[in-house]
Amino acid sequence: MLPIRPRLAVIAAGVLLVSGCASLGSDPDDTAPGTSSNASSSPSETSGPAATETPSEPEEDPETPSSWGPTLGEIEEAAELVEGWTPEQLAGQVIVGRFHGTDPEEPARMVRELHLAGVSVTTDNIVDAGQVRAMTAAISEAAARDGRDFPPVIGVDQEGGYVSHLRGVATEFPHFQSAGLAIAADPRLGRRVTRAAALTTGLELRGLGFTWVFAPVADVTIGAADPTIGARSPSDDPGVAAQAIGAAIKGYDDAGIVSTVKHFPGHGTATSDSHDTLPVVDSTLAEIEAHDLPPFESAIAHQAPAVMLSHLDLTAIAPDVPASMAPEVYALLRDDLGFEGVTITDSLGMGAVGGRPTPALQALRAGADLLLMPVDTAATHRIVVDAMGSGDISRERVEEAAARVVALQMWQARIAAERPVPGDVVARAQAASGDLLSAAY
């Protein structure tokens, strides 16, 4: 088993070759722009001050895409934008709130008054397709009235199988386990139908007004001893799971929706349910690298825009602290695996983090960019505002988080505008669901 950094270098090199990015101009042995590789550097051709001048660095093209989606220009624009925001605006932009009931005005009011990045929609907020469209439209309008010219985060758990909060409204897809089974049976066909399933899921969600999907699940299950993930996992084989994740991310990207790889660094070995309690995972770091990380490495290599952090007690990395609140886990994701996109916590209303003082603030300090579904959205907003005022958290940390979210939403708006939702999206989704099921079984 290769150490993390060399192993990632191999993956990154493979992505460059596949994508055709390994052009002559990207070769580190190439000379700087404006020079020739066989140019002479003899004293007869260089004299005076020019011989000692240091070549200026080439300016970065703002249209260059980042490793996670947004262009360098969008990232810079987002950073400049949030610099001028009030503490209340900044605090809102790092929160994805929860709301109760089915009245579209309730989430719209929260987004407008608390400047929220957005909201997460659950089964309890759903009536039918018309109500869903009215709700997502109201949320988008509220963000626009708050002065934002980029879309809000409107997210939903729509993994396929039993974790599908739009059941009865959107097309039903099989468990994500089906992707792994299809790939194990025929890798090429399996990746194709997995990507098509993600593409049509994303397009259908966009047609309903969503901008985010809290999927795909990258956890590698251990089977019957895993009570939480199970068939939500693509496979008990890390290599198969890695292929499924790569294919799904490309499909969601093609659809112009933000995908969320979860639950870092892997929930599949936990033998208790984080919805109820804080699971203790005693895997060694080497075991985590071998069993749990390959799908996340694949996600990063395929330009995943967002990663969700789990609520797990990882004794080998950060004992007694939920992973979502542990700086060491964010360092593993960013420094060792090289992820540069948006980090989001799992729901802060889960039992694993219940009873902890200011869990949202702990997560934000540790490295979270988005705080998902705190128990009390308004109270959490006030806690973050007050913490910036008192110095309990730096404004710079909150600006960093908010800017990443804004840049990603700029990317989502741009890609969605380029790829309109087809009129027959439901028929396409139904066909893709059937193809995935057929390839798996």
From TrEMBL:
Pfam families: Glyco_hydro_3 (PF00933). It comes from the Bacteria. Residues 1-24 form the signal peptide. Residues 25-71 are annotated as: Disordered. It catalyses: Hydrolysis of terminal non-reducing N-acetyl-D-hexosamine residues in N-acetyl-beta-D-hexosaminides. Its EC number is 3.2.1.52. Belongs to the glycosyl hydrolase 3 family. This is beta-N-acetylhexosaminidase.
